[in-house]
């Protein structure tokens, strides 16, 4: 499944508050979450409800792909992605998942609620799931969503940000082409659209811009991804997206997720071999993890394009493509043409491997100029999605 972490749509990725949160809330996250002592029951003829188990991955894969087809999503999940989700150490399989199964053990409804462990300035509970198309129209979806909202409130009240006075959101995502009934279900529950994303693609049969490496007398190098540069790339991503609305840092564990489709051969970075460490350490924009890495003499990634190959999506979209999961430039290094360099290198590698298109998603209000950059590189809009929230 291709995701839009290139623009961090949760999110997703200014970063500290949404437009309706101009000042810190008066109450803590836990006070505003008002967590219920018990969760509402979900009623459905012939179904029993339980948490998840890691061996449920094939059944969860099947229902999620049925939901994706019914809701006109331009992607499909892979078994490896589901296995990664169920293995995530911060997810409570018994309490954060709800599965509705019939007497044969077949799965007819699925719900998942999680709070990303890296959140620092916005507390988020992200809700995913749905009801198998053959059981829609029975009211199960509304009750399942009510369960998710209640569990989301519990998760927020127990999160690391529970005692903080920061924005708190219940979050769902929806494709623009999803059935109207899905949007109405969210709206009746109190969700409202907060952000919009464009699904872009670029025909790789057209001439690709030349890969312009940094000048030979520069301390910057354009290089392919290697394992030892993965952690420096995570730190670069966190710096690059700190000024993006709603974005939160990626921890080591969340960064390591969703890598089953990762393509090192399509992933390019710019490294600064001789950064001005004193200037960076004195800058208020340098985060603590980057500062520690600089003091340790670790490599400094300053621009990157992380790419994946989502084979399951090819048939749905009708073409083969390489997907840019995440693209960014450290703020201290912007304005040097580094984003076009890593993008062009990635596109050329995708084309060399026989891909027909390059694809990505972008926040339509991205503050870094990414929308204009992608247009200049030949990307065109193919579809879109949106993030909806209940702001507590």
TrEMBL record:
Pfam families linked: Acetyltransf_1
GO MF annotations in UniProt: acyltransferase activity, transferring groups other than amino-acyl groups
Region annotation (Disordered) ranges: 1-44
SUPFAM superfamilies xrefs: Acyl-CoA N-acyltransferases (Nat)
Keywords, comma-separated and alphabetical: Acyltransferase, Ribonucleoprotein, Ribosomal protein, Transferase
GO CC, any one term: ribosome
Residue ranges constituting the N-acetyltransferase domain according to the UniProt record: 47-209, 220-392
Keyword set includes Membrane: no
InterPro entries, per the entry: Acyl_CoA_acyltransferase, GNAT_dom, YpeA/RimI_acetyltransf
CDD domains: NAT_SF
Ribosomal protein found in the keyword field: yes
Coiled coil: none
Protein name: Ribosomal protein S18 acetylase RimI-like enzyme
Native organism: Myceligenerans xiligouense
């Amino acid at each position: 499944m291709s995701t839009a972490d290139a623009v961090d749509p949760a999110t997703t990725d200014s970063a500290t508050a949404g437009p309706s949160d101009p000042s810190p809330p008066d109450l803590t996250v836990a006070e505003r979450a008002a967590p219920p002592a018990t969760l509402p029951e979900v009623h459905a003829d012939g179904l029993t409800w339980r948490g998840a188990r890691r061996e449920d991955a094939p059944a969860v894969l099947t229902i999620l792909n049925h939901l994706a087809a019914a809701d006109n999503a331009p992607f499909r999940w892979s078994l490896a992605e589901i296995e990664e989700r169920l293995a995530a150490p911060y997810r409570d399989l018994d309490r954060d998942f709800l599965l509705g199964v019939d007497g044969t053990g077949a799965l007819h409804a699925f719900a998942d609620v999680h709070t990303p462990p890296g959140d620092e300035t916005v507390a988020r509970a992200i809700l995913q799931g749905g009801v198998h198309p053959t059981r829609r129209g029975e009211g199960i979806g509304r009750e399942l969503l009510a369960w998710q909202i209640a569990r989301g409130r519990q998760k927020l009240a127990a999160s690391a940000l529970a005692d903080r006075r920061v924005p708190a959101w219940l979050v769902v995502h929806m494709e623009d082409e999803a059935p109207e009934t899905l949007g109405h279900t969210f709206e009746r529950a109190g969700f409202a659209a907060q952000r919009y994303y464009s699904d872009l693609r670029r025909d790789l049969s057209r001439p690709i811009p030349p890969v312009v490496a940094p000048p030979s007398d520069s301390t910057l190098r354009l290089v392919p991804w290697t394992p030892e540069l993965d952690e420096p790339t995570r730190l670069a991503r966190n710096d690059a997206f700190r000024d993006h609305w709603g974005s939160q840092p990626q921890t080591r564990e969340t960064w390591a997720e969703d890598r089953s489709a990762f393509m090192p051969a399509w992933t390019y970075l710019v490294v600064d071999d001789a950064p001005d460490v004193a200037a960076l350490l004195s800058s208020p924009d340098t985060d603590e993890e980057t500062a520690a890495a600089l003091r340790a003499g670790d490599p400094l990634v300053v621009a990157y394009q992380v790419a994946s190959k989502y084979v399951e999506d090819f048939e749905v979209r009708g073409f083969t493509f390489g997907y840019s999961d995440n693209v960014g430039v450290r703020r201290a290094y912007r304005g040097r043409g580094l984003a076009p360099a890593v993008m062009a290198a990635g596109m050329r590698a995708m084309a060399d491997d026989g891909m027909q298109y390059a694809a990505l998603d972008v926040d339509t209000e991205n503050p870094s100029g990414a929308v204009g950059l992608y247009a200049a590189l030949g990307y065109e809009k193919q579809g879109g999605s949106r993030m909806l929230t209940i702001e507590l």
